């Protein structure tokens, strides 16, 4: 079967020129959106609408540091398209976050919500900072300052934030408290990923990894691989990566590699996952306790059945795609594989389950959290897990079938499924 990829050689060259040294997530996303919109039969005006967020706010946040000085932080909140409903998506605290990245991430949130059939468009936020070098007090003041700065454009019926890289339920709690104070009423539906006692949902903490696990279960069936005993390599040991390692270990797969920002651990006979889970810190760091570490890039190239990038973007690129020795790549992280690398993996017969499908479990349970907050009635962990399973299996099968029917790779198929809802809603509203 001939599989079509949205990346043409001249477009790759065009991308290379635009990238000016970095792998530009926004430009490559726009290329696939263009192709998906065209394949769905919409005109160029629809592409013009959907290729950029409708709104991106840049804010400056003064924070008093523990030593008495004032630091000014830069933050962003980007809202891609609100035709379907309020926008939704996480906030990352990271030294390298930038406006283009947040814009791309907000587009991906629209696609994820479209795939999981949630009544949302996509949003995303970020603050340039390194929380690993900040005290709890500084983090609290920064989180509250960010909410005050973006308060005009967010809210339970406008745009609903959530956790992402280096943010967690404590940060969500401070943000919710700040918003509730500003609005002078308790607003649990303003943000998801909260502690359970503040209206968080059972199963949200593990939801992203659960969703990835379900995608792995479906992908191995398609490839005729047995999960029991399959070798798995996971890049990143934070919320997504560490729970995934636990679930894979429990399922009888052999986790032979994990990593964090400092390096990677590899053991072809299988790592002691329970020990690593016990020793990791709240930022998903554990390799600093070991001397025998390899680099993240070396880990990605190890032979395995299943490779899961679960850390940051642009990890599998034109440079290393030929040296990936996995049968299946499941993207738990946002944007870990470039377009050029997607094409190479596809040509090499490696099944790639794209980020906007594989990592949709997080936002799906965030939606369940918001529904529970709105109705004031809460579900058990089993109820949440069952609802999530249905959404993930249905999403996987829809995209797999779309890729077979249209003879396109799984990423383009996922974009076609994901963008359809925003496009239809924009059309019905008479915008395009
Ligand atoms: N937390 C969630 O609900 C969701 C997360 N994701 C995506 O999953 C990925 C991981 O997110 P979380 O686990 O939530 O973050 P986290 O903050 O809990 O953990 C991040 C992990 O990545 C590692 N890391 C950071 N920089 C790295 C680098 N340069 N090289 C290698 N590893 C590095 C950290 O050491 C840590 O182990 C991100 O791409 C995020 O956008 C996607 C959907 C939902
Ligand atoms: O839980 C959410 O609302 C969003 C999670 C997120 O930021 C993501 O899927 O990238």
From TrEMBL:
NAD among keywords: yes
Record GO biological process: L-glutamate catabolic process
Name of a matching Pfam family: ELFV_dehydrog
Keywords: NAD, Oxidoreductase
CDD domains given in the database record: NAD_bind_1_Glu_DH
GO terms for MF: glutamate dehydrogenase (NAD+) activity
PROSITE patterns: GLFV_DEHYDROGENASE (PS00074)
InterPro entries, alphabetized: Aminoacid_DH-like_N_sf, Glu/Leu/Phe/Val/Trp_DH, Glu/Leu/Phe/Val/Trp_DH_C, Glu/Leu/Phe/Val/Trp_DH_dimer, Glu/Leu/Phe/Val_DH_AS, Glu_DH, NAD(P)-bd_dom_sf, NAD_bind_Glu_DH
Family: Belongs to the Glu/Leu/Phe/Val dehydrogenases family.
Protein name: Glutamate dehydrogenase
């Amino acid at each position: 079967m001939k599989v079509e990829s949205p990346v043409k050689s001249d477009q790759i060259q065009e991308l290379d020129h635009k990238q000016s040294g970095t792998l530009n997530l926004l430009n490559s996303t726009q290329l696939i959106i263009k192709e998906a919109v065209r394949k769905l039969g919409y005109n160029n005006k629809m592409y013009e609408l959907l290729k950029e967020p409708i709104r991106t706010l840049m804010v400056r946040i003064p924070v008093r540091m523990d030593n008495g000085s004032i630091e000014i932080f830069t933050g962003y909140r980007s809202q891609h398209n609100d035709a379907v409903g309020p926008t939704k998506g996480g906030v990352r605290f990271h030294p390298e976050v930038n406006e283009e990245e947040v814009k791309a991430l907000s587009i991906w949130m629209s696609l994820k919500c479209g795939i999981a059939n949630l009544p949302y468009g996509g949003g995303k936020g970020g603050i340039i900072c390194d929380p690993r070098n900040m005290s709890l007090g500084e983090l609290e003041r920064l989180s509250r300052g960010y909410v005050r700065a973006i308060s005009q454009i967010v809210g339970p019926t406008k745009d609903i934030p959530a956790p992402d890289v280096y943010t967690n339920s404590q940060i969500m709690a401070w943000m919710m408290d700040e918003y509730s104070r500003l609005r002078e009423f308790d607003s649990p539906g303003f943000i998801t990923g909260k502690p359970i006692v503040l209206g968080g949902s059972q199963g949200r903490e593990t939801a992203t990894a659960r969703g990835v696990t379900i995608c792995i279960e479906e992908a191995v069936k398609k490839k005729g691989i047995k999960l029991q005993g399959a070798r798995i390599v996971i890049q990143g040991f934070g919320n997504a990566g560490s729970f995934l390692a636990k679930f894979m270990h429990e399922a009888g797969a052999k986790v032979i590699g994990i990593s964090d920002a400092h390096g990677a651990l590899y053991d072809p006979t299988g790592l002691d996952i329970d020990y690593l889970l016990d020793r990791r810190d709240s930022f998903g760091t554990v390799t600093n306790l070991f001397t025998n570490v390899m680099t993240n890039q070396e880990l990605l190239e190890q032979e395995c059945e299943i490779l899961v990038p679960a850390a940051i973007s642009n990890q599998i690129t034109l440079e290393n795609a030929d040296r990936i020795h996995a049968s299946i790549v499941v993207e738990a992280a946002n944007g870990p594989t470039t377009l050029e690398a997607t094409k190479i993996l596809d040509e090499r017969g490696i099944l790639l389950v794209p980020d906007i499908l594989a990592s949709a479990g997080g936002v799906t349970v965030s939606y369940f959290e918001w529904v529970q907050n709105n109705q004031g009635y809460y579900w058990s962990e089993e109820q949440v897990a069952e609802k999530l399973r249905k959404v993930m299996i249905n999403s996987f099968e829809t995209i797999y079938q779309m890729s077979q029917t249209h003879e396109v790779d799984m990423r383009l198929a996922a974009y076609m499924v994901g963008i359809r809802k925003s496009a239809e809603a924009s059309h019905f509203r008479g915008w395009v």
